[in-house]
Each structure stands twice: as C-alpha cells, then as structure tokens.
Design goal:
280 residues; alpha+beta; Peroxisomal Thiolase, Chain A, domain 1; 9-stranded mixed sheet; 22% strand
Length: 280
C-alpha cells in the first residue's frame, strides 16, 4: 500500500504485530480463539468463568470488576506473546462504554441512597480504571491513553496506538474491551457479553512479529467488512467491540486482507494486514 497522502490528509502508518490476545467466555484465550477462527476446532461448550488475571493479587482479583479482569488478562497475554516487559510499554486502553454495570449501579444508588455509594465501586467506575490497575500491577511508568469513541472505538484506538508507535519509534500495547449493558443503561447503549482483545504494535519488524498492519485514514464512511467465521462471530455478537473480530480472524488465518474500521461518520481507517508466518 502506498504511503502517499490520501483525501483525509495523513500518511499511512506501518506497524508490526508482535503479540496477540483475545478472551471471551467461549474463546478463553488466543490459542482457543485462533483454532476456531481457522476452522480447526469448535468453540468451548461451556462458557468459562470470568478471567482471573494472575497479575493481580487474590484480594484485588476478587474486587476488580469484569472490565478490569478481561482487560488485564488480554494485556498480559499479549505482552507475554510479544516477549515484552509490560513495565516498559506505553499503552492505549479503548472501551466504547466503560463499565456499564458499575455505572448503572452508580446512577441507581445516587438516585435512591446517595450516601451509600461504595468507594470501591466508585473508583472502579471511571473509564481509565483498567489502565490504572494495569500500570499499578506492572509498575509501569510509561504513559497510557484511555479512549472512548462509541461505535468507532476500536478504529480510533488502533489509530492512536499505531500513531504513537510510529511517532515515538517504540512498541505500544493496545487493549480493547467491552461488557454487557444492564438496567436503564441498556435502553441507551447496546452491548452484550464480555469481550477483550490486545496487540503489541512495534514500528520495526522483529523475530516475534506475526503480521504487518498498514493503517490509513480515508474520507467517507467505512463499507461493511465481510463477516468473520459464523461460529466465532456468534460468540461476540452484540458486544460493542465485536466489529474488531475480523481483524483477529485475518491474523489467525494468516491471509492478506484489507479491512475497514470506522473513525467517525465521515472518516474510516483502512487496515491492510500482511501476514508474516504463524502466530506463536
């Protein structure tokens, strides 16, 4: 793909995927998800319980909300796959809506019994909670971004992470996740289930690199991507982050593809995926 300027006015960004992670209850981890996305196995029959990230001590693991648990699970798995020290990676954490059940609790409690708001639930309800847990648990002093852009979130987060990797000439951890809406919040936003993905993006190729991504902002709305494998798509259907599954399908199948992710009503992100050998 040419790095020439395009109608939206910015050059293409080229980054290498060094680590990949995915978690949802019936695809609990990248090895399981990759096999299903390649058509080699069936999804897990019984849903796994929520992830239990080993990064957190037992007490914190129990208290952390599901959004934090899934974000830390995929973040740590992606770093391990990339062979990168989590403490040395800047990061981008992206969620379309944040922790919807916690925010539903906050709104309901403030409306009925405002003096009974739980301090623990309050600090877990902020949008950067997962990023905060991550930096504390890993001892990471590198900068992080906590990003939300509704239905455009995955594309916006990927663009942010790729831009940072290229401009700073350093690897960046990208984590994206969403959870089920409940209560009155579910009448305003649409999201189901628990789903998280992560990648380590590097501006330079390495022995760990599994694919190259060439990202380019284009004017106009994004055309609909061809569907991911029906079995896998059904397992994340309705989640606010489900639109990113096609990217991970291409990584799993090791096939060149050009996909589109929305950035806004008038901008789209073209993502050309060029495989480089099997994912470890």
């Amino acid at each position: 793909m040419s790095a020439a300027m395009h109608p939206a006015g910015s050059a293409a960004l080229s980054v290498w995927v060094e680590g990949v992670a995915l978690w949802t209850p019936r695809l609990p981890g990248w090895p399981a998800a990759r096999a299903v996305l390649r058509g080699e196995t069936q999804p897990q029959g019984e849903p796994a319980p929520r992830p239990q990230p080993a990064l957190l001590p037992p007490t914190e693991r129990r208290r952390a909300p599901d959004t934090v648990a899934v974000a830390l699970e995929v973040a740590f798995a992606a770093c391990a796959s990339a062979g990168r020290d989590p403490a040395r990676l800047p990061s981008v954490f992206a969620s379309a809506y944040g922790d919807l059940p916690l925010n539903d609790y906050m709104c309901a409690t403030l409306a009925r019994t405002p003096l009974l708001v739980s301090p623990t639930r309050f600090h877990n309800s902020v949008h950067n909670a997962a990023a905060g847990y991550w930096t504390i648990a890993t001892g990471c002093l590198e900068p992080y971004t906590a990003l939300s852009a509704r239905e455009h979130t995955f594309g916006a987060g990927l663009l942010s992470a790729a831009t940072q990797a290229v401009s700073e000439d350093a690897a960046v951890l990208y984590v994206a996740y969403d959870i089920e809406a409940c209560g009155p919040m579910a009448t305003m936003v649409s999201s189901r289930g628990l789903f998280g993905v992560a990648m380590v993006l590097s501006p330079q190729p390495s022995t760990r690199a599994v694919a190259r991504l060439v990202c380019e902002v284009r004017a106009g709305s994004a055309p609909r991507n061809s569907a991911a494998s029906a079995q896998a798509a059904a397992l994340v259907q309705g989640n606010a982050m489900a639109g990113c599954l096609c990217v991970f399908e291409a990584l799993a199948q090791e096939v060149p593809r050009e996909l589109m992710q929305t950035l806004s009503g008038g901008l789209a992100l073209s993502v050309a995926i060029v495989p480089r050998g099997p994912v470890a």
